[in-house]
Amino acid sequence: MNIGKEVLNLLKEEITEVEYNRYIKHLNYDLKKSNANLAIFYAPNALVVNWIKNRYTEKISHLFEIKSNAKVTVQITLKNKVETKKTKQIVEAKQSSSLLNTSHSFSNFMVGGSNQFAYAAVKSVSENAGNVYNPLFIYGGVGLGKTHLMQAAGNVFQDEGKVVIYTSVEQFLNDFTRSIRNNTMERFREKYRKCDVLLIDDIQFLSNKEGIQEELFHTFEALKGDGKQIMFTADKHPKKIAGLEARLQSRFEWGLVADIQPPELETKIAIIEKKCEINRVSLSKDIINYIATVIESNVREIEGILSKLHAYSQLMHIDLNLEFTKNVLKDQMNENRENLTIENITQTVAKDLNIKPSEIKSKGRSKNIVYARRISVYICRELTQNTMPQLAKYFGMKDHTAISHTIKKINELIKDDEDFKLKIDELTNKITSAS
């Protein structure tokens, strides 16, 4: 094995598998033209040349020095230096597509009932660009995975050699404004209308911006007419974005509009377990379950929480346990309880369990009503200052002994049934977060 290959093998151990397979493994070391002070590598295209030059030339040089004990100048170049127009377009497009996060892939996106439809739609588009669901419009709240899905598709397209533009509305607007100021609109349009795939995040920020809406409309028409794939994300359905031109709204709805809902408890647990695996953080099941109940919807918080726990544990030399975790994350719980009432607790429980609040207060003895009533009583006792007689009066129960019996029953279920405990914790945190 020549020294060039040995150095690349050393580099492989220090970078991600994705980056190695996407870029480094395509390098060929020129044994004949290289010497003790010069290492020449050939790359298959200008995109790879520029990417490696910007990120790894110094690192490769350092590894050569380790292997040969000599200062080596590393040269990354094309074997044929005559670049085609297409290659130049790819290099220019790379300046925008470099915003793609290579760690965002379909394989590490946790699929659950709340996001299954959106996942299937984006996956389908990634396998058949320009031919199905064009445009694809994904909407949902903050931190639910819209950008992850979009960039996962972008990474697939980029691996296939397509010219991918990934940008936010803010960046699109900045480029547009700069082009008008510098009289370079032709270059702007060449960039955004000649790509194979256009991915734009946070479309809701187009609201009431007439000039940029006009430009995006014509960009859309040009790309759609050429059969190029377009994908958008937003925090709400196109119909609910105020200040959006009707013709642009209709274009957003031409293909497919798919939403992502807040994840259910099981999905949140799966996401946390996956993030622990990726970040090499070891947490017990009870801590993972607790974190899942603390996070209401924004799953982007998970990595921050894991980093916070890990930092506290390392800096304070404390083993992570449930009590310690609760103390560290007390600000995450947002426990603003002084405004909580029996009424809003009962309404939240009723909505979650799909029954009427009036049924919880009734004399009904059906299994689902008794179940909801017991949970409501328990959470009201935990989160409010109401006495047992006051709770008995509100829920139409005989007296304080009935309340005491209910609370005892719930405590037994919490102790014996892990799923039931999780349900109580999730409802408790949902109520306190909404207060």
Q: Count every helix, treating DSSP H or I runs of 4 or more residues as helices.
A: 22
Which descriptor suits the 3D outline? Answer: flat
Structural class: alpha/beta
Mean residue pLDDT: 85
Main sheet: strand order = 5-6-7-4-8
- Give the ordered list of helices and strands: HHEEHHEHHEHEHHEHEHEHHHHHHHHHHH
Low-confidence stretches: 82-87
Q: Main β-sheet, in a few words?
A: 5 strands, parallel
Radius of gyration: 28 Å
Termini, distance in Å?
Answer: 66 Å
State the share of residues found in helices, binned by percent. Answer: 55-70%
Please report which band the strand proportion falls in: under 5%, 5-15%, 15-25%, 25-35%, 35-45% or over 45%.
Answer: 5-15%
Number of β-strand runs: 8
List keywords for this structure.
435 residues, alpha/beta, five-stranded parallel beta sheet, 8 strands
How is this structure best described in words?
It is a single chain. The protein starts with a helix and ends with a helix. Helices cover 57% and strands 9% of the residues. The longest helix has 17 residues, at 367-383. The strands form 2 sheets. A 5-stranded parallel sheet has the order 5-6-7-4-8, with helices on both faces. The protein is α/β, with parallel strands linked by helices. Mean pLDDT is 85; it is low at 82-87. A hairpin with an 8-residue loop joins β1 and β2.
